[in-house]
Amino acid sequence: MGWFDDNHPMGSRAEEEMEDAIEAMGFNKWYKDPQPAGGSSEPARVERPESEWDESKWRKTNLRDGDTMAKGKAKTMYLLTDKDLLPLQYQRQTNSRGFDNMKMYRKREVERLSWKKYGGPNGLKAAKEDKNGVKPASPKKASGSGKAKSSASAATGAKIGVLGKGKGKAENGPAEEEY
């Protein structure tokens, strides 16, 4: 609060009443989805060479304490599934169309959960690189003529063989009659 609010007799009382009103309306209420019977609260580990499973060796997070993020963004940024996010608490928030259906998770908890799944910040970084197509070189095949054709390119090749390569314009041929 500012100088006026701190020095005004109504300042701290108004702040307390505002906090009570927000809590009564349920804006700061945290929810938790029910856990499946016999399910574990820890996500399944994804083993990689870059993973470091000792949490004491992980770097400190760069995220602020109160920051939240939407469920969809949490899933794409941190490569998590719905099942992985079940143990975390969330707040409900209205979306741009006015419906109360967004789940907002604490960023720090989401990041920590992804580190537990992928083996720290380095494991998560390697998983993101694999997902984005930066994969290690695979060994060359011993036999074969090189690249294999996909079914789409094979179908296109078959059409060209039957129809020929045209310029896209139909020409009047001897079989067509004019009316």
TrEMBL record:
It comes from the Eukaryota. Keywords: Nucleus, Zinc. SUPFAM superfamilies: Putative DNA-binding domain (SSF46955). This is Uncharacterized protein. It is found in: Nucleus. CDD domains: DBD_XPA-like (cd21075). InterPro entries: DNA-bd_dom_put_sf (IPR009061), XPA_sf (IPR037129). One of its GO terms (cellular component) is nucleus. Residues 44-58 have a biased composition (Basic and acidic residues). Its main location: nucleus. Residues 135-159 have a biased composition (Low complexity). Residues 24-58, 117-179 are annotated as: Disordered.
